[in-house]
Write a structure and sequence with these properties.
Layout (H helix, E strand, L loop, with lengths): L5 E4 L4 H14 L3 E7 L7 H12 L4 E5 L1 H8 L5 H23 L4 E3 L4 H10 L23 E3 L7 H10 L4 H4 L19 H20 L8 E15 L2 E14 L7 E2 L4 H14 L3 E6 L13
Parallel strand pairs: 1-2, 1-4, 2-3, 4-5, 7-9
Antiparallel strand pairs: 6-7, 7-8
Helix pairs in contact: 1-6, 3-4, 8-9
The structure holds xanthosine-5'-monophosphate (XMP).
Xanthosine-5'-monophosphate binds next to loops.
Length: about 300
């Protein structure tokens, strides 16, 4: 590869994090990672990425703060597919802009793993689009000349995790549940606003914290909170309230194509519910999603 440069979109998820570590071992500072904060991330996620990659491992990282831009473009959009398309487009634009500033780059690295390869093949088939996948396709013209580097292309998730641990990534990062590219936007039913993101972030943090404390994080495949901005009636003191609903979802699965809802212990659910209604302003009701996939999907949008 000589002195040529490689750029990688780093999300903080398992696949792109392991790709970053591996490439840094291979080509050192010829690698530059680009991290886009789209305002749709979970609590403290952006700081965590900067802490691990920039400060701990000293990997060259360009961090783009694009929240305002994403919120502006998402204003008024409530259709799930439209939201996904907007986010995909804005991501590519932010990424390409940051990449141009780096100067001459020859390679584009991606954290593609084996199941993604299989999935993208089946997406080209005749089956109807269930959800548009923003990771597939759609690079701007001037980036298409870049050569692709996909070092994890033949690995399954558990192999990627083992590799991540060997490369020194923190346990919590390697064992993270999957998080969708469009982030909190597909966990807020309807329009995405900064206020709704803030509320959902707080509820989600409580849920994950309690799941971790109870030793259930690694016993469930994916867990998260969803914001339903439909107002329901409640009572607090002698006042009537008219506030939002938080739905909790936790699933058990191996391939994410089918999933069962996780039988979380009652006491854990009770603690999460009471903490959310007490600590998150604007929520007066918490429900637990007991739907299997199929027919329900894992995400709500
Ligand atoms: P569903 O909701 O389709 O989710 O049952 C299956 C898995 O895919 C994740 N997911 C996404 N990931 N972009 C992504 O990168 C998306 O638009 C998207 N939609 C769903 C979901 O979190 C679950 O792990």
């Amino acid at each position: 590869m000589g002195g040529k440069r490689v750029v990688l979109g780093l999300s903080g998820g398992v696949d792109s994090s392991v790709t970053a570590m591996l490439l840094y071992r291979a080509v050192g500072r010829q690698l530059t990672c680009i991290f886009v904060d789209n305002g749709l991330l979970r609590m403290h996620e952006a700081e965590e990425v900067r802490k691990v990659f920039q400060r701990q491992f000293k990997i060259p990282l360009v961090s783009v703060e694009a929240s305002a831009q994403f919120y502006r473009k998402l204003k008024g959009a409530s259709d799930p597919e439209r939201k996904r398309k907007i986010i995909g487009r804005e991501f590519i634009e932010s990424f390409a802009r940051a990449a141009r500033r780096i100067g001459r780059v020859d390679f584009l690295a991606q954290g593609t793993i084996y199941p993604d390869v299989i999935e993208s093949i089946s997406h080209q088939g005749p089956s109807a689009t269930i959800k548009s996948h923003h990771n597939v396709g759609g690079l701007p013209q001037n980036m298409r000349r870049l050569k692709l580097v996909e070092p994890l292309r033949e690995l399954f998730k558990d192999e990627v995790r083992q590799l991540g641990l060997k490369l020194g990534l923190p346990w919590e990062m390697v064992m993270r549940h999957p998080f969708p590219g469009p982030g909190l936007a597909v966990r807020i039913i309807g329009e995405v606003t900064p206020e709704r993101c803030k509320l959902l972030r707080s509820a989600d943090r409580i849920f994950i914290e309690e799941i971790r404390n109870a030793g259930w994080y690694e016993r469930t495949s994916q867990a998260f909170a969803v914001l339903l901005p439909v107002r329901t009636v409640g009572v607090m003191g002698d006042q009537r309230t008219y506030q939002n609903v938080i739905a909790l979802r936790a699933v058990s699965t191996t391939d994410f194509m089918t999933a069962a809802w996780t039988r979380l212990p009652e006491e854990l659910l009770a603690r999460v519910s009471s903490r959310i209604v007490n600590e998150v302003q604007g929520v007066n009701r918490v429900v637990y999603d007991i739907s299997t996939k199929p027919p329900a999907t894992i995400e709500w949008e």
